[in-house]
From TrEMBL, chain A:
Region (Disordered): 593-616
Organism, scientific name: Tripterygium wilfordii
GO terms, molecular function: structural molecule activity
Domain Coatomer subunit gamma C-terminal, first and last residues per copy: 770-884
Lineage: Eukaryota, Viridiplantae, Streptophyta, Embryophyta, Tracheophyta
Function summary: The coatomer is a cytosolic protein complex that binds to dilysine motifs and reversibly associates with Golgi non-clathrin-coated vesicles, which further mediate biosynthetic protein transport from the ER, via the Golgi up to the trans Golgi network. Coatomer complex is required for budding from Golgi membranes, and is essential for the retrograde Golgi-to-ER transport of dilysine-tagged proteins.
SUPFAM superfamilies (UniProt xref): ARM repeat, Clathrin adaptor appendage domain, Subdomain of clathrin and coatomer appendage domain
Residue ranges annotated for the Clathrin/coatomer adaptor adaptin-like N-terminal domain, each copy included: 27-540
Protein name: Coatomer subunit gamma
Quaternary state and interactors: Oligomeric complex that consists of at least the alpha, beta, beta', gamma, delta, epsilon and zeta subunits.
A GO BP entry: intracellular protein transport
PANTHER family for this protein: COATOMER SUBUNIT GAMMA, COATOMER SUBUNIT GAMMA-2
TrEMBL record, chain B:
Function: The coatomer is a cytosolic protein complex that binds to dilysine motifs and reversibly associates with Golgi non-clathrin-coated vesicles, which further mediate biosynthetic protein transport from the ER, via the Golgi up to the trans Golgi network. Coatomer complex is required for budding from Golgi membranes, and is essential for the retrograde Golgi-to-ER transport of dilysine-tagged proteins. The zeta subunit may be involved in regulating the coat assembly and, hence, the rate of biosynthetic protein transport due to its association-dissociation properties with the coatomer complex.
Protein known as: Coatomer subunit zeta
GO biological process: intra-Golgi vesicle-mediated transport; intracellular protein transport; retrograde vesicle-mediated transport, Golgi to endoplasmic reticulum
AP complex mu/sigma subunit domain ranges (all copies): 11-150
Annotated signal sequence range: none
Length: 887, 181
């Protein structure tokens, strides 16, 4: 590692930097270390040599085992010197060398002597060194001294002992726990940092004892805490106690909230910020609780210190995700941060504004962002694009300006990830906002005219092939697609040919023209392109005239494979060449690992292009295929809705089971996804015994057991029930997992012959009204409402009794109905006394339902609600009222 | 088990680099960067990313590889403190400020790379007095400097009694100046 210094010496002759370590070499320094053995120690010289050794280690140089041992023994000789400075370097060196157990013994006595020295500095440092290198056996010998040190008058000594205690707690908890009396005494210390270190250690000793932590917090929040750091710790512990304590008492006051609020007036900024952040993270925080925290954070936004601005805007950004209305007061300060020198702060400000902005401010905001986009890095731009996409989904009426913005930035310079983020966003907008489809597709067409990324070009072409033919004028896309055949590389050309063929297959009138274009592709230089063109020309049929394409042909060319690719791959690998042709029907259709498990993975963002159809739609598709492949369920007809998986076991139990409720017109199917987490067991003949005594209208219809459930390879078992046709029947089911368990030999993986029957109790499962409702949004609620008309309108008023807050009541009703909130009306502005919420959904029997909820809250927190339902069916409107009345 | 929110505020590393991103002194407290090459790679990309920012007067801040980094530059020296992304930014900033000001005091306001290398022992002791195994030991620059200087007192007149008190006076002046800026 000495080379860089040498090299620099070479390339810069005019100004040679002097460095005391110029030309330093490990071998030479190790030689120099011999001075440690001199009978007459030169303290200054020795210090310098240690500094050189430390320099080498710091630069990343390593010592061999032998070298390290030699240095270590030489260094121990230096304990003879009485020079304080040298001693200090010796301590540093020993810590860096991290000696082995038998080496530690050599220095133990020297260090223990220093621990009892009259010089406080020796004592403090000797404690830190000894605790760093010691093991459990030695610890019992020095425990007595450490306990004394914890309550030592000198704060440096006390802190050294306390910090060592925190480190030792990881390796020797039973010893450190015996020190609690001394640590408790140190918590009362007048020295600020001793209090901080003592509090940290005391909490770690007691962290598993809820009651003790609660007592600690109760007494300290009433007393005086001197150091800001200790105050921050206390705030963290207080949050923990709040989180674990029982839900609000009758008064509705949160315990310790007053303490957190009081900390907002502390003189140290770090304490103010810690308290503000703790308040914003309280679970189910109310607007009233949030207000003071938001106010101090708002002040920080205009601080001259970047760190303070960053901390505040980052916290507000998080708050905006759950309580956008609470942050709107800061919008003016936030807007001035868009031009902040620190681009992290600017980006956080922008994305916060995008979350809190209302419909009318969208245009103004977009203007400001446009200026800002040109001078930030791609990674920040991606964050902004994501925020714009969610904004657009929230205000679908504003799609025009937002889509324009996206298409503008799409044309500008940018790397692959950034471009992909934009394209993905446009695709999602096209999918979710029907009005945006045509303009969005054209923007994508323009983009591929000049796109340097093959991946994006092919994905867009594929997407055009699916969406383009369904538009009002499919012919206008042909030019863009055919241009690709001329101008691009083989991969993109082949993809363009497929897209052309799709247009030809779906749009009969375009077929003759497509045929002409495809014929030209027969002369392409690449064989894949030619092969594709030949295939399509021969299969589409009609020889270039306007005829309808055969359904079988369409299915063959563009239909999706109805078997999981993974299964197909395994079956193909097992297929041995023979007279008998490969039969695709032999591929098992059961999905091995359930698709939802990975979808649930945290942090997974909605994918756009990569898989244009992986919305909720495709899970339904996957489920539908799975269910229809099971003969018992094949007759159930169309799958109406599949719920999200409901966990029936606690996390980390022997068997993990969750259930998906599939709703059909006359049936309900429970799909139990089971995982066996015990390597030594093989489960066979797995079924779930369902007791439907609390679900009288359901009749058990069929059960499909799971033949075998090996370790860590999820499988499914099904139980189907019959229910009254088209009725939103509800009920409660209790479940018992029954199976035969066989021991598995861990070395061979073989299961034993004989098994034992066993049962495992699962949690109960309910079918509720919301299971019969699909969330389907509308882009313009007013239009939909007007066009639905008041024919089957039903209005009634309900008293919801005393509630925690308006927002909480709104949420509860939305969850009860299982409908899609429209136009961002699920968010309740803080301090408002009334609120209107718009919902849309599809009820069983495919009946469209629109709901208008008006809420009001009075001084006693009594909430009243007016419910207006419009639907295409009178009985459905009544049913919605019934759900609310009985919920 | 205990999330970082419930545990003690902690520091992942403290770095002092030169104007080319090379090490003057560094100290890592976690295994996030297990090898020397991982450490060097982190230092290099952090240095490049922050190079253009103006961190001369006030400490600057950035998110970097799911970490919070606070940094401040003076002459040809770049000071960094890294902490977890959930850490209280202001606590990390106080660690950086403590380090930065203590180095100022110890180098008698003559803070540059040559001086830092010349007094590398003081810089290393200074790091040792600020953070122990990731836990904050002390953030008050004068206290840190006093502790470091005390050790050197009797040794080969690195700092005599007088120079310490002088250094402390200059440090206080320096601090008051920055406060009123």
């Amino acid at each position: 590692m000495a080379q860089p210094l040498l090299k620099k010496d070479d390339d810069r002759d005019e100004e040679v930097e002097y460095s005391p370590f110029m030309g330093i070499e490990k071998g030479a320094v190790l030689q120099e270390a011999r001075v440690f053995n001199d009978p007459q120690l030169d303290a200054r010289r020795c210090s310098q040599v240690i500094t050189k050794l430390l320099y080498l280690l710091n630069q990343g140089e390593t010592f061999t085992k032998i070298e390290a041992t030699e240095v270590f023994f030489a260094v121990t000789k230096l304990f003879q010197s009485r020079d304080i400075g040298l001693r200090r370097m010796v301590y540093l060196m020993i810590k860096e060398l991290s000696p082995s157990a038998d080496e530690v013994i050599i220095v133990t006595s020297s260090l223990m002597k220093d621990m009892n020295s009259k010089t406080d500095m020796y004592r403090a440092n000797a404690i830190r060194v000894l605790c760093r290198i010691t093991d459990g056996t030695l610890l019992t010998q020095i425990e007595r001294y450490l306990k004394q040190a914890i309550v030592d008058k000198n704060p440096v000594v006390a802190s050294a002992a306390l910090i060592s205690g925190i480190h030792l707690l990881q390796t020797n908890p039973e010893i450190v726990k015996r020190w609690s009396n001394e640590v408790q005494e140190a918590v009362q210390s007048r020295a600020a940092l001793v209090q901080f270190h003592a509090l940290a250690l005391l909490h770690q000793i007691r962290q598993n004892d809820r009651l003790a932590v609660s007592k600690l917090v109760t007494s300290l929040t009433r007393g005086t805490v001197r150091s800001p750091l200790a105050q921050c710790l206390l705030i963290r512990y207080t949050s923990q106690v709040i989180r674990e304590s029982a839900p609000n008492t009758q008064t509705g006051d949160r315990p310790f909230y007053d303490y957190l609020e009081g900390c907002l007036r502390h003189k140290a900024e770090m304490v103010i910020f810690e308290a503000a952040r703790a308040i914003t993270e309280l679970s189910g925080v109310t607007s009233r609780e949030l207000t003071p925290a938001i106010t101090v954070l708002q002040l920080f936004l205009s601080s001259s210190k970047p760190v303070l601005r960053f901390a505040a805007v980052r916290t507000l950004n998080k708050v905006a995700m759950t309580h956008p209305m609470a942050v709107t007061n800061c919008n003016i300060d936030m807007e001035s941060l868009i031009s902040d020198q620190n681009r992290s702060i600017a980006t956080l400000a922008i994305t916060t504004l995008l979350k809190t902005g209302n419909e009318s401010s969208v245009e103004r905001l977009m203007k400001q962002i446009t200026n800002f986009m040109s001078d930030i890095a791609d990674e920040f731009k991606i964050v902004v694009v994501d925020a714009i996409r969610s904004l657009c989904l929230k205000f679908p009426l504003k799609y025009r300006s937002l889509m324009n913005f996206l298409s503008n930035i799409l044309r500008e310079e940018g790397g692959f990830d950034y471009k992909k983020a934009i394209v993905d966003s446009i695709v999602i907008l096209i999918r979710d906002i029907p009005e945006a489809k045509e303009s969005g597709l054209l923007h994508l067409c323009e983009f591929i005219e000049d796109c340097e990324f093959t991946y994006l070009s092919t994905q867009i072409l594929h997407f055009l092939g699916i969406e383009g033919p369904k538009t009002s004028d499919p012919s206008k896309y042909i030019r863009y697609i055919y241009n690709r055949v001329h101008l691009e590389n083989a991969t993109v050309r082949a993809c363009a040919v497929s897209t052309l063929a799709r247009f030809g297959a779906v749009v009969d009138t375009l077929k003759p023209r497509i045929f002409v274009l495809l014929k030209r592709c027969l002369y392409d230089g690449d064989d894949e392109v030619r092969d594709r063109a030949t295939l399509y020309l021969n299969t589409l049929g009609g020889d270039g005239s306007v005829v309808e394409t055969d359904k079988d042909v369409k299915d063959f060319l563009f239909g999706s494979l109805d078997v999981p690719l993974l299964n197909l791959e395994t079956t193909l690998k097992n297929y041995e060449p023979s007279e008998e042709p490969f039969d695709i029907a032999s591929v098992p259709k059961e999905v091995k690992s359930q698709p939802l498990a990975e979808k649930k993975a945290p942090g997974k963002k909605p994918t756009g292009l990569g898989a244009p159809s992986t919305g909720p739609v495709s899970t339904v598709d996957a489920y539908e295929k799975l269910l229809s492949s099971i003969p018992e369920f094949a007759e159930f007809g169309k799958l109406f809705k599949s719920s999200a998986p409901v966990e029936l076991t606690e996390a980390e139990t022997e068997y993990a089971v969750n259930v998906v409720k599939h709703i059909f017109d006359r049936h309900v199917v429970f799909q139990y996804n089971c995982t066996n987490t015990i390597p030594e067991q093989l489960l066979e003949n797995v079924t779930v015994i369902v007791d439907a005594s609390e679900a009288e209208e359901f009749l058990e219809f069929a059960t499909r057991p799971l033949r075998s459930l090996p370790f860590d390879s999820p499988g499914q078992t099904f139980v189907a029930f019959e229910k009254p046709e088209g009725e939103p029947t509800v009920g409660k089911f209790s479940n018992m997992l029954r199976f035969i368990v066989k021991e598995v030999d861990p070395t061979t993986g073989e299961a034993e012959e004989d098994g034992v029957e066993d049962e495992y109790q699962l949690e109960d499962l309910e079918v509720v009204a919301a299971d019969y409702m699909i969330k389907v949004g509308v882009s313009n609620f007013r239009n939909a409402w007007e066009s639905m008309g008041p024919d089957f309108e039903r209005i009634d008023e309900y008293g919801l009794g005393p509630r925690e807050s308006l927002a909480e009541s709104v949420n509860a009703v939305i969850n009860l109905l299982g409908m899609q909130p429209c136009e961002g009306t699920e968010a309740v502005p803080q301090n408002s006394r009334s609120h209107t919420c718009l919902l849309s959904g599809l009820y069983i029997g495919s009946v469209r339902v629109l709901v208008r909820l008006q809420f009001g809250i009075d001084g006693q927190k009594e909430v009243a609600m007016k419910l207006v339902v419009r639907s295409e069916d009178e009985s459905v409107s009544d049913a919605i009222h019934e759900i609310v009345a009985s919920g | 088990m205990a999330s970082s929110r419930e545990s003690c505020p902690s520091v992942k590393n403290i770095l002092l680099l030169d104007s080319e991103g090379k090490r003057v002194a560094v100290k890592y407290y976690t295994d996030d960067w297990p090898t020397n090459s991982a450490k060097l790679a982190y230092e290099k990309s952090l240095f490049t990313k922050t190079l253009k920012s103006n961190a001369q007067i006030e400490a600057e801040i950035a998110m970097f590889e799911s970490n919070i980094v606070i940094y401040k530059f003076i002459q040809d020296l770049h000071f960094f403190v890294t902490g977890d992304e959930n850490e209280n930014e202001l606590i990390l900033a106080s660690v950086l400020q403590g380090f930065f000001d203590a180095v100022g005091i110890l180098l008698r306001n003559n803070v540059d790379k040559a001086e830092a290398l010349e007094n590398l022992d003081l810089i290393l002791l200074c790091l040792d007095e600020i953070v122990d195994g990731g836990i904050i030991l002390e953030t008050d620059a004068t206290v840190i400097a006093e502790k470091v200087a005390f050790h050197s007192m009797e040794s080969a007149e690195l700092l005599s009694e007088q120079t310490i008190s002088q250094a402390l006076v200059t440090a206080r002046e320096h601090l008051t100046r920055t406060l009123f800026q």
